Amino acid sequence: MTATGAVWRNWGRTETARPARVERPATAEAVQRAVSAAARQGMRVKPVGAGHSFTGIAVAPGVQLDLTDLSGVIAVDEELGRVTLAAGTRLHQLPRLLRPYGLALQNMGDIDRQTIAGATSTGTHGTGGGFGGLATQIVALTLVNGAGELVRVSETENAELLPAVRLGLGALGVIVDITVQCVPAYLLQAVERPEPLQQTLDSFLERSATEDHFEFYWFPHTETALTKTNTRLPLTEPRAPLPAFGRWVDDELLANGLYRGVCALGTVVPAVVPPFSRLAQKLTGNRDFTDVSPSVFVTNRSVRFREMEYAIPRASVPEALAEVKALIEKRGWRISFPVEVRSAAADDNWLSTAHGRETGYIAVHRYYREDPAEYFRAVEAIMMAHGGRPHWGKMHTRDAESLRSAYPRFDDFVAVRDRLDPERLFANSYLQRVLGA
Fold it and tell me: Where is each FAD-binding PCMH-type domain found (predicted)?
C-alpha cells in the first residue's frame, strides 16, 4: 500500500514529519521494491515502528515505511528455543505468540508498545545485572541494504556483521525479520518496597549483582526510593497475581489518572509538585506478587512525557545520582517525574550503551507540556563527566565527534554503514548528527 504522507508525530511529541509518501509493505520483497524505487527517485527511506523514540531517529522526510503489516511469527526452532519474527511485530504481541511454544523473552523493559525491530535497533533494555538489552537476544536477522538486496546475518552467514546490525540505529538497512534466542517461560516474584534513598544507594551495586532484576525510582523532593526486585521462578511454582481491581487502582487510577492531573497542574502551579511527590511515595511501591514474566516486567504508561537516559559504569551510579539530587535542590526545580535507575550486563554489540562494561542507567523525565531542556542539559553534563553514553532513542545533545570517544568500535560501525548503505539512503538529520555524514 502507498499513501500520500500525512503529519507523523512520535509518542513523546518531540518530533514531527510529513513524509513525501508512506508505504506499508507486507513482505520482504515489498520492502525491496520500496527501497529500490526510492533509490531511483533520489529519495531517502526510513522505517517507522511505534514512534516510542524521543529522538528523531525514525523521522522520514522522504519515504516512510510503515511496517505494521510485516508482523507475526515466521519460524520456530523449538529444539533451540529460537523464534523468527517479522520486524513490525509489537512486543506486547509476543506473550500470545510465544505461549504455544512455552517460550518467553529472557528480559524485557517496562514498556511493550514498540516493534521488535525498533526496540532492538535503538538499544531498548530492561534491568538486571546479569542480563543484556533486547539486542543481545538476537541470533540472526535479515535486512534490505541500500542496494535493495536482502542480506542475511547470523552466526554462520556474514557473522562479522552481527555486532553491528543487532543494534544498527536504522542506519544499515531496513530490517525485515529477526531471530530471537528465547528461554523457557517463567514466573517472576515481584517485591516492591519503599526504602530510604541513601540505604538504597549504598546497596545498589550489591543488589544489582546478586538479584535477578533490581531497579528503583526516586521522586525528587523526597528521601525515599521505590525499589523493585524481581526474582525468576520456574513456571511450575504457584502464581499469586495482583487482584484485578487492586492493580487497576495502583497502575491506572493512581499511576496514570491522578498522576496525569498532578503533572498538568504542576505546569501551572509548580509548588504542588513536592508535596505530591511525598504523598506518591507513601501511596505506592508496597506490593508482593508472582505472575508470568511479561505481566511483571511491563507497566502501562499513559501519562505522556519526555525522557533522557544515560548509561554509565555501574560503580558510578550512587555518586552520579547524588549529584543529580544536589543539582535539583540547588536549582530549586520542581520535578514531578521520578528518576529511574536500572542496570545491565556488559555486551559486545558495537553501539550498545553497555558495550564492554557493567552498566548502570539513570533516566530523567519531564511531563510533555514542560520544557525539559535546562534540566536535561544539566543532568547530561553530570553523566558525561562519568563517561556516560546516551540511549539512542531518548533525548540528548551528543554528536558524532563526541560519541566516537565513547564507543571503541564506533569507526568499525561506520565502516559497516559504508558497506551496506554507501549512498546514505537510510540517513536523516538525527543519524547525520550522531554518526556523521
Answer: 15-185
